[in-house]
Design a protein that fits this description.
Elements lengths: L51 E5 L1 H4 L27 H9 L2 H4 L4 E4 L3 E3 L4 E2 L4 E2 L7 E7 L6 H13 L3 E6 L19 E2 L10 H4 L9 E2 L11 H9 L3 H15 L5 H16 L3 E4 L7 H21 L11 E4 L6 H4 L2 E3 L4 E3 L7 E4 L2 H4 L4 H12 L7 E5 L16 H10 L3 E5 L25 H6 L1 H19 L2 H4 L1 E6 L3 E9 L2 E9 L4 E6 L9 E4 L5 E3 L4 E6 L6 E3 L2
Parallel strand pairs: 1-2, 1-16, 2-7, 7-10, 10-11, 11-14, 14-15, 15-16
Antiparallel strand pairs: 3-6, 4-5, 8-9, 12-13, 17-18, 18-19, 20-23, 21-22, 21-24
Helix pairs in contact: 2-4, 8-9, 13-15
């Protein structure tokens, strides 16, 4: 938000005191104590490096329109957790309107693909499955009616932006959906159906199919191809063939690209940017596509985003560029650096269109002590010669070994994720300890249960946990120094550190203390603010004053958040 960096000097001090691993601690908050949000002013910049990004499965989050739950006769019984359950785009919008995301300190939402899925189902070793997850595209130009309509999507983006929440969609270019009786294979000049990937070299990870019966788009091809007859027939039946063809003609005339498979899909995906103003893409299966394709995709995303901004000046949130984060499965970025090693080839995806990459290493990092995590991540992410962005997570939709699968450490999970340098990805239900072990499921289905709204409504323990995530989330987005600032330890015992961020005229300084006991505390805050400065504990509502470079506070909680009173 560069236009906001003017005539402002914001110095805030936050001291967070908690007991590492004390999952019995309980967060409490009254309406008068919600001061984190008060510091999130119009001058506080939105930074993707500090974003609090909520990731959800569209079908499993909230069902606001039961009328769209059944389409295309997808009525056969499925294996446990492998059928559609009713979640939809309207369900996401409803929770934005209810203030759920704002209360949680969420300023970006990423949801699974909503394009039209294959109409049939498959049985590939995990039991009969429909494309409820969104990764089995049949038609990139249409939304699946189970998820909603284009009008629903437009409303979602509009409402999100009104609430200062960015929207990140999921982009799949690597493959179509599986072949079924209802879903014929795409032509051979569009896809390959063999060999299956072996993952022991660049070629055996890219020029192959991820699994059996998942046709792989010929993304390396520059040959002109005609549209599949099945797609043409579908468009004609829906009465939009002429419109779609005219748009394609215009796209290829403007860009000069060959009518190769990847450019059709790039056009179809970037239409969501141009038409609705979405703020970013999470790119699926990145290492299984030639890296230059991602650069081509990002160029078109940037062009589409600028076009939307030009056509909708009154709706533009800020001057941030289009955001693209990539999934390179198993990529331990902090340990290995900016280049991913295929064994015979190394690829730097940051040089091919990506602003950030999903950090598969963070769940292992979270097993370490706080200082080890914070200092290592800060040094890597803020190093002038090797600095880059990462998206940290502890649980996800297809990672069978999350940090806390048993949900035994949900408070610790929040503290480590939301206070670590880098972008934070909250997986739906992290904040409510949604069950990740569902009896009878196979594979990643156990990670994809429906959101546990009833627990949030009725269970005091869940409500207390949610409040803990809410306070940390709002604290994080109010202070860009948390995710984007530089970390420095002030003292080892008690463990106290600072984060500092500066960009233009905007400054944010945060001091955090961890592993301190409850009750009356005297904490050194270094030289980060003036003698006599009035501070407020956003967690308990207690006010205090700086004396001799320290603060005294007697809080009933094991965690305190101090902010300078302005």
């Amino acid at each position: 938000m560069n236009t906001m960096f003017k005539n402002l000097l914001l110095v805030s001090i936050v001291i967070l005191i908690s007991s590492c691993g004390r999952d019995t601690q309980k967060a409490s908050e009254s309406a008068g104590e919600r001061s984190n949000a008060e510091t999130l002013t119009e001058e506080t910049p939105f930074l993707w490096e500090n974003a609090n990004l909520y990731f959800l499965l569209t079908d499993r989050f909230n069902n606001a329109d039961p009328e769209n739950d059944m389409n295309f006769d997808r009525n056969l019984p499925t294996a446990p957790m492998r059928g559609f359950q009713g979640g939809d785009i309207k369900g996401i919008t409803a929770k934005i309107k209810d203030g759920y995301f704002t209360d949680l300190g969420i300023n970006a939402i990423w949801f699974t693909p909503v394009v039209e899925q294959i109409h049939g189902g498959t049985d590939e070793g995990t039991g009969f499955t429909y494309g409820f997850h969104g990764y089995w595209a049949k038609d990139w130009t249409a939304l699946d009616p189970n998820f909603g309509t284009l009008e629903d999507l437009a409303e979602l983006v509009k409402v999100a932006h009104e609430n200062k929440i960015r929207i990140v969609m999921d982009a799949v270019i690597n493959h179509t959906g599986p072949v079924t009786e209802k879903d014929p294979v795409w032509p051979s000049d569009w896809v390959r159906t063999s060999p299956k990937c072996e993952f022991d070299s660049y070629e055996t990870a890219v020029t192959c199919t991820l699994v059996e019966n998942l046709p792989d788009i010929l993304t390396e091809s520059d040959d002109n191809v005609e549209l599949p007859e099945a797609l043409i027939k579908k468009w004609k039946a829906e009465g939009r063939y002429e419109k779609e063809m005219a748009e394609l003609d215009s796209f290829f005339e403007r860009t000069g690209y060959p009518r190769a498979p990847r450019f059709y899909i790039i056009k179809w995906l970037t239409d969501f940017v141009r038409d609705f103003g979405i703020d970013g893409f999470r790119a699926d299966t990145v290492r299984h596509i030639e890296e230059q394709v991602w650069a081509e995709f990002k160029n078109e995303c940037d062009e589409a985003f600028l076009s939307w901004k030009k056509n909708n000046p009154g709706l533009v949130l800020d001057d941030n560029d289009f955001y693209m984060v990539g999934e390179v499965y198993g990529y331990y970025i902090i340990s290995t650096g900016k280049s991913f090693d295929f064994g015979d080839v190394k690829v730097n995806y940051y040089d091919h269109g990506f602003d950030s990459m999903i950090n598969f290493e963070f769940k292992q990092s979270a097993e370490q002590d706080y200082e080890s995590i914070f200092s290592t991540y800060s040094n890597m992410l803020n190093n002038d010669s090797s600095g880059f962005q990462v998206l940290n997570y502890l649980t996800s939709h297809d990672d069978s070994t999350p940090f806390d699968k048993e949900r035994a450490k949900p408070y610790e999970s929040a503290t480590k994720l939301l206070l670590s340098p880098g972008t934070a990805q909250v997986y739906y239900g992290d904040e409510s300890a949604r069950n990740l072990i569902i009896e009878g499921t196979q594979g990643d289905a156990t990670l994809r249960s429906f959101m546990n709204w009833e627990d949030i409504s009725t269970n005091p323990e869940t409500q207390s946990l949610l409040e803990h995530w809410q306070k940390l989330g709002k604290f994080r987005i109010a202070h860009p120094s948390i995710g984007a600032g530089k970390h420095k330890m002030i003292s080892e015992s008690p463990y106290v550190f600072q984060r500092q961020f500066k960009k233009g005229d905007f400054e944010d300084t945060v001091v955090v203390g961890l592993n301190l006991g409850e009750g009356s505390q005297t904490i050194s805050v270094g030289n980060n603010f003036k003698e006599g400065a009035a501070l407020h504990d956003a967690y308990s509502g207690i006010k205090t004053v700086v004396k001799n470079g320290a603060v005294e506070i007697n809080s009933p909680h094991s965690i305190i958040l101090l902010e300078e009173v302005r």
